[in-house]
Specification:
four-stranded mixed sheet, Potassium Channel Kv1.1, Chain A, elongated, alpha+beta, 8 helices
């Protein structure tokens, strides 16, 4: 089995997520999350902080443990699994509440997904200007939300 197809179990805030190494590393191979997961897969925790990777521990089953919000991480995985470019409609459909979008923006920065964080920040500015309802209507039509 290719290392890219290796299944990785990540415990985030007590919630277990299963994904592949390829999913975590393909879209943003230099992200803090990708660097940490690669370090974990190599069993090389000592280099984690020096590489810029996010800090992690191992849980009681030796899985990677990240002490962050699990709901935001679910959205991060959705982002990594989405092949197309992220749109405002996609974000609003996934997370209709501005507070959830803000939390995702904070975690996107933490995990090193700066393009996603920047997109969320721009969306927040648009929503403040009153265009949020337009995205909700478009989301319902395009994505069936």
């Amino acid at each position: 089995m290719s290392l890219d197809n290796r299944i990785v179990e990540i415990n985030v805030g007590g919630q277990l997520f299963s994904t592949t190494l390829k999913t975590v590393t393909s879209k943003c191979p230099k992200s803090n999350l990708a660097l940490a997961v690669q370090s974990y897969c190599r069993g090389d925790e000592a280099k984690t902080e020096r590489s810029g990777a996010i800090p992690y521990l191992r849980d009681s089953n030796q899985r990677m443990f990240i002490d962050r919000d699990s709901e935001s991480f679910r959205s991060i995985l959705d982002y990594l699994r989405t092949a197309e470019d992220i749109t405002d409609e996609w974000i609003v459909c996934l997370l209709p509440l501005a507070s959830d979008q803000f939390r995702l923006q904070q975690d996107a920065m933490f995990y090193g997904f700066h393009d996603l964080a920047a997109h969320l920040k721009k969306l927040s500015t648009k929503q403040s200007a009153g265009t949020h309802e337009t995205y909700q209507v478009r989301c319902a039509v395009v994505y069936g939300c």
